[in-house]
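cache lookup: miss for this entity combination. No prior model stored, computing from scratch. Input as submitted by user K.M.:
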Amino acid sequence: MSSFQNRHLLVVGAGLAGLRAVEGARGAGWSGPITIVGDEPHPPYDRPPLSKAALSSEEEPGVPVLRSSEVLEELRVQHLSGVMAHGLDTERRTVTTSAGDLGYDALVIATGSTARTLPGLTALPSVHVLRRYDDALAVRVSLARARHVVVVGAGFIGSEIASAARARGIEVTVVEASGRPLERAVGPLGAARLMQLHADAGVRLLTRTTVSGVRTSDRGVEKVELSTGETLAADAVVLGIGARPATAWLAGSGVALDDRTGGVLCDRRLATGAPGVWAAGDVACVDGERSEHWTAAGEQGRVAGANAAGAGDVFASVPFAWSTWHGRRIQVVGETTAAEEEEREDGFILYRRDGSEVGAVGIDSPGPIARLRRALAGRR
Amino acid sequence: MSVIEADKTVCEGIGMCETQADTYFQIGDDGLVEVLVDEVPESDRGYVRAAVDSCPVSALRLQG
C-alpha cells in the first residue's frame, strides 16, 4: 500500500460513469494520482448524443466530449486511451491491460456494456449497432444513402434510430421480437402511447417478428428476411437489441457477477465484494438491478468515486430517462413497470403502487414530469 | 464574476445542474431549467462550472 498522499485511484472505463468517478473522488478529497483507462481512441465522451443529434445533424458531428481538456487537466487525471483491460488480480491490486500492468489502491470498474448482435450479422457492411462514436459515424453514412432501413428492436435506441431515419425521409420498418415493445421499461399503456408515435410518423412496426436472414450484394445489404416469411427491401440494418455488461476481463478475478443480469454485484454504496473495488454505470448491478440510464450512470460514478476516496455516500437517485422521437419529447421517471397505470392527462401516464405515485411516462409533458420527479426525490 | 446563460430551447429538463448546484439552477414547473442566480462569484465558480459542464444537451454556458 502506498503512502496516503500517493494512493493511486484507477478507473477502468472512460465513459460517463468513469469520468464522474474521477470527479467524485476529487470532490471527496482524493489527493493522489488518478488514472482513467478507456479502450477507445477518444477522450471521455457522452453517449446520448450518438443516437440523437449525431444522427440528425447536417454536418458530421465531432466527438461529444464530456469535459474540455482544461477541465481534465484541473482534475489531474491521466487518461490512457486505446487501452484494453484484460484481467484483474484483487490480491495484488493489479489490472492487466494491453499497455501493461497497472497497480491500484482503489479501483472503480466502469467498463459499461457492449451492444448485443445477432449471430451471422456482425461482419456485414451496412449492418450496424449503435454504442460508440465510431458506430454513430457508420450509421450516419448508411442513413445518408439509404431508402429503406430495417431497425431491429423497438426499445429506446431502436426508436431513436427509427426517428432519425424518418426525419431523413427513409422508409423504416422496426422489427420487434416480443409481443409487447418496451416490456422491461414501461407498462402496456405507456408502451402503446409511445408506439403510436411511430405509427403517426409512418414507421411500420412488426411485433413477434425476428430476422431470419439477410441477403447481401457487393453493395451491402439488399433484403431482410423475416420469421413471418416476409422479405423487406433494406439498404441498412441497425440493431437496437440491448447491451450486455462488459465483464469478460473480470473472469476469475473474484469480483462477483449477478447471475441474472451479468452485472458486477454491488451495494448501494457501489462497493463490490472485493476490497478496494467499486463499480458504477451500465456494468454495475446495484441491489439486483442494472439501471442502464445516463442519469444513473453519472450518479453511480460520482458515488463510487467519492466512496473510493472515503466518503460514505449512497446511490439513491430517482430513475430518469429522456428521448426524442419524431420531434416529441419523451421522459420516463421513477418506477413505470409493475404498478397501476393511468393516463392522467394527454401524454402523461402515471404509475401508482398501493395508492402512491411512483412514476410516470411523459410525452411532451415536461411540467408534470418535473413536479412528480421532485416529489419522488423528496421521499428518498 | 461569471455569468450563467441557459438555452431553454435546448434544455430537456434532465436536472443534472440542479443536482449539483441547486442554489443556481432549478427545474421549473414548465419542466425546463430556471437560473435562480445568474451571477457567479469566483468562490462558487468551480462547482457551477462542473454543473454547467455536466449538462448532456449543452444547454448551459458560463461566460467570463
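stored under new cache key. The interface with chain B takes residues 23, 46, 48-49, 66-68, 71, 294-295, 298-299, 317, 320, 322, 324, 329, 331, 365-371, 373-374 of chain A (CB under 8 Å).
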